[in-house]
Amino acid sequence: MEGDQTNRWQVQEAKARFSTLVDTTLEDGPQIVTKRGVEAVVVVPYQQWLRMEQSRKPNIKELLLAPEARTETLVPPRRKLARREPPTLQ
Questions:
Q1: What is the pLDDT along the chain (90 residues), one digit of tens a residue?
Q2: Which of 29, 40, 73, 88 has the fewest CB atoms found within 10 Å of its own CB?
Q3: b/e map of 38-68 (b: 16 or more CB within 10 Å)?
Q4: Model pTM greater than 0.70?
């Protein structure tokens, strides 16, 4: 998306035309706001943000600091292994 400037807003323009930024976000999707020419934030529609939050997996810090135990995500499920027959001793 380097060459596409249709979804990029300078912070001054975004502040001056905030209502237009919101309308464009709702109609066309995420909009990038730049600060001094560097991408700073992305404005996304609320429903899209909710979907992103629900699909996000917690990182290890969040798991360790959580008040409730979340061990089911720390230990991978065990696989069924094929077992060999024991050798017969004579």
A1: 444 567 999 999 999 999 999 999 999 999 999 999 999 999 999 999 998 888 888 778 887 888 877 666 666 777 888 888 888 887
A2: 88
A3: eeeeebebeeeeeeeeeeeeeeeeeeeeeee
A4: no
What is the side-by-side strand order in the sheet with 38-43?
A: 8-10, 31-35, 38-43
Task: Quote the tokens at residue 80.
Answer: 């069924």
Distance between CA 32 and CA 85 in Å, rounded?
62
**What type of residue sits at position 47?**
Q
Is the distance from CB of 42 to CB of 31 less than 8 angstroms?
A: yes
Asked if 37 contacts 9 with a C-beta cutoff of 8 angstroms, the reply is no
Q: Where are the beta strands (DSSP E) in the chain?
A: 8-10, 31-35, 38-43
